[in-house]
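FAQ: What does the model actually see?

It sees only this:
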Amino acid sequence: MDDSVADRMIAARVKSLKERFQIRDLKSQTVRSVKSGEWEKVAPGAFTEDYPAPMVANRIEVMSRDVSASLAPLPAINCAASSSLADAAKKFAEKRSKIANAYVKGSNLEAFQTDAAAS
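And it is asked to produce this:
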């Protein structure tokens, strides 16, 4: 395949993906703007002395952190036995569960979960 044809195919695919996810990207940009305090981009002239922007920004940040903390806990990993009757299968399933949990613990994933959920 010619390089220019491949480049055109890639460009067309990128354009298609941008169009497909345009609404999601706009909503994401709105959330980023609100969290960074760029209020005038989101709601020009919306804040008054009764509801100043810093107070609203603080409230949004607190709510965002609360939701992130509720989404952040890692799920429990429990492997199922292939046969519920065989003791060897149960022991093997327990061993797989321990191995999987050791990988999760060793990855230090939990330390970054709250930040990942907030993004």
